[in-house]
Amino acid sequence: xxxxxxxxxxxxxxxxxxxxxxxxxxxxxxxxxxxxxxxxxxxxxxxxxxxxxxxxxxxxxxxxxxxxxxxxxxxxxxxxxxxxxxxxxxxxxxxxxxxxxxxxxxxxxxxxxxxxxxxxxxxxxxxxxxxxxxxxxxxxxxxxxxxxxxxxxxxxxxxxxxxxxxxxxxxxxxxxxxxxxxxxxxxxxxxxxxxxxxxxxxxxxxxxxxxxxxxxxxxxxxxxxxxxxxxxx
Length: 233
Ligand code: ADP
What we know:
It is built from 4 helices and 9 strands; from the N terminus they run E-E-E-E-H-E-H-E-E-H-E-E-H. The protein is 28% helix and 30% strand. The chain has one domain (19-232): Ribosomal Protein S5, domain 2, CATH 3.30.230.70. It is α+β, with helices and mostly antiparallel strands. It starts with 18 loop residues before the first strand and ends with a helix. Residues 76, 78, 80, 87, 122-127, 167, 170-171, 183 line the site of adenosine-5'-diphosphate (ADP). Adenosine-5'-diphosphate binds at residues 76, 78, 80, 87, 122-127, 167, 170-171, 183.
């Protein structure tokens, strides 16, 4: 019997934060969505497909998915300097890679689909929330997709595998072995499109973390699907 870890939030090891989603939040965009997980809120707006500029970035074989992630200056308590930085450039690429396997842009040579992802509040898990909002916004924009993508992190607090680390657990938890954060993204038929491992974890516990996140991704998918159906009414 594994000893149940005491989380500051009171959540069980395999309990994610409360989630909600809404589609169609930005009327000027071709597609848009909001995804909220606890205190983390992501909004995403899709523009396109449209002609890719500059011309030298055009791909004549297929369309390009271009994601831009940013944390708004008021998204955390210490004000963030606006504009791109190393972290936001990296997360933008990761969001593209997480969504690329499902987005079907073969019929859009030389075109680009722009996805702008902004964090209005950030309490860890922002790349996952951003991916969830972006996937819904792409579907809302009518971009052909093989699957929906649902993203969540699992990880380790001291010796216990846990789901969905919040900011305290991700950065400030220092007991025992500390924490490991593993953001992941899954298609609605359970295939991984993205995984990152920040910290140390054994092979056995990694398997457990993946299973935990995969199960939770099914619940996220239900919320995303419901939000997309509500806009169709
Ligand atoms: P993720 O948000 O995907 O978990 P990180 O692990 O890089 O990505 O960040 C964890 C959390 O740390 C963020 O969600 C945010 O709450 C906080 N954070 C990240 N960058 C900054 C920053 N420049 N200033 C203040 N807080 C930050």
